[in-house]
Fold these 4 entries.
Entry 1:
Amino acid sequence: MSDVIVREFHPADADAFFELNREWIQRYFWLEPADLDVLWQPQSAILDTGGRILMAVRNGVCIGCCALIAMGPGEYELAKMAVTPTERRHGIGRRLMSASIALAERMGATRLYLETNHTLTGAMALYESMGFRPLPKERVTPSHYSRADVFMERMVGLRMPPVSASDPHAASSCCS
């Protein structure tokens, strides 16, 4: 993995950003209108509104991505995180997430938010290991995605206690 670099999105990465996300979404769900709005126009949908996109690249080939979508002052949605199938389970997703959290901190973020689906257990374990915690039901707002049924947040700049992915109560006890 030492030959993988994580860098900011370039306009020439638009096709790779689309394809990386299309692959995982269609593997488990289906592309929804909200996906297409973001994936077809990452410049206007993410970058021009104050967000950022990071790409994981090996030998000039984009093998992963992660976006920070501006939600409001100091708040970003961590979204559109994908790693190409042949590169999964090698720490690239963790590296992208770590770089995204560090970037959000440098941007002055106070809160990161994400939406996922309960069937993506590997992704959920990664999110929890990186300090994301489930939102209490009363704080969940409707999603643009029908597949979203798990909503998490991570306060930025605060040390979150480690949580075992095997203890579902531990993750929710800090935020309820």
Entry 2:
Amino acid sequence: MKEIHHLIDMSSIKRLNGVRERLTVVMDTNAIIRIMKHDGPLRRTLRRFKGLSLRILILKIVLAELNKIADYSEEEVVSEISRKLHSKVTVIGQNEDISSAAEELEAKYSSAHYPDSVILATALISDSTLLSYDQGLLDCAKSEGVKTFVPKNKEAFAA
């Protein structure tokens, strides 16, 4: 059966009774690297989330991966992402609920491997939007009903 994903009408969620809507976003490693290194993904991300009050979640395992891959420190990532996205960044660890959900996702999807399964489980449990460039991770997220955003696409915000 073919799944249908509807694009979210951003104007409908930006304001609720005149109050800025809060959106929680879980970022994966590749999205952070691209936003930190390139202006294009940053501009597209800011444009898409304009008018929203963002809360950014970054997992400790993502920070460790960023340190290993790109030699970014935790402080550097948190500071730069917070500054560039004009948002509060919260660093979170992996708890038992996330670990359990990640194991279920790994069993369900061959492309949901560690640490991607943990990132997806976090977005699923926290009812957050996943910001990623990883097509396998995005496909799993869409199958699970997780909202996704890919800064490289014009119509990149889907549920």
Entry 3:
Amino acid sequence: MLAFDLWYKSRVTFYQNLADIVLILHTLFVVFIITILLLTVIGGYRQWKWIRNWWLRVCHLIGIVFVVIQSWAGLVCPLTTLEAWLRSHNGGAQYEGSFIQYWLERFLYFSASEWIFIVVYTVFGLLVILTWVRFPPQKNPSTGRYVASEERHDKETDTDNSA
């Protein structure tokens, strides 16, 4: 019986830890989406070059487009589903547990009508698209390809040094 108890407790701890990791990743995703939009707007007006990094902006756009499509389709976020599934394997208790879980869930999950989330996600997605128009990713003038900020900076430095 002791061996079973140890096995069961280690299994519960394993699923609890995995669920906490998924919750942390989910929170980081939300923070990334919100922060990059804010920094893009601020950086656009302050002329920060790094906010025009094509890869950063594409990842950001894909992330918010995914959220908007899933909300319009009436789907639950896959990270929320995965976390709930992991917690259901945690001895059946789904939103009780660790310190991390307690605080991140209060940050991440809100109670509101589904249409409110659809409107908020859609407006946020439109703001992201607006930043693409107002502060577009930078293209390399010689190739016409989108470049990362570091590549553009290196080329500008080379041009400055050759003059």
Entry 4:
Amino acid sequence: MNISISIYILATLTGILIIWNIFLQILISRTNNNQKRLFAGKKGVDLESIVQENNAKINELSQQTQSLDQKTKQIKAHSLKSIHKIGLLRFNPFREIGGDQSFSLALLDDENSGAIISSLYSREGVRIYAKSIQKGQTAKYPLTEEEKRAIAIASIEKNNQIIKRRV
């Protein structure tokens, strides 16, 4: 009885080993096919030249990326100096007559520097004034209350459109 059990165990192990061997043969066959496809491309060019070519392309793309980063920084620096804060305030300088036909328009950059244009409308005519603004203030001419409010409107964070306010 011991011999028949031994034969049964050996037959089972042999069957398992045969199945394992078939599985390994399939894996080796797939690996060989993948290698053939990898090395068959580019008309038989070896893998080393392909890797070197790809490294050269990667280095070129890296240089282009650095160049684009520098240009982006330059554009950002220029954009901070451009006018992108706008404040418009319409008002009536003469309470008893007319409507809100006068205005103060603040045109500012990121540092609240730029210009303010004011128009005063009256029956006799229209007067237009322009003042230079440096960091929210003017050095040469005093600002009117309406001009200060127009600058405040323009200085509101995330101001990306003309905001109209009435006095």
